[in-house]
Amino acid sequence: MAADTLNIEVCYASDAVQFLRALTVPIGATIEQAITVSGVLREAPEIDQATMQVGIYAKKKTLDTVLREHDRVEIYRPLIADPKNARRRRKSQA
Question: Which family does the record assign (predicted)?
Fold first, then answer.
């Protein structure tokens, strides 16, 4: 690793796409820049960069968050069902 770069990963998963890419980005790069460079937006056109939620290791972050060495940028899909309601439905059917 060069002294002025970071090793990171960008990941996204949906029913149709499983994306995990290791990248080297310059120090000071943001989540938004890493997503753009990764190519995930080409492979998963359903991602809306204006409304998607992102995080690093399951902690929600903003697109302007500056990355650190070994961060894993995660792109989150919207929930299909409210987890609380889903548990209630399963319990009432049991």
Answer: Belongs to the UPF0125 (RnfH) family.
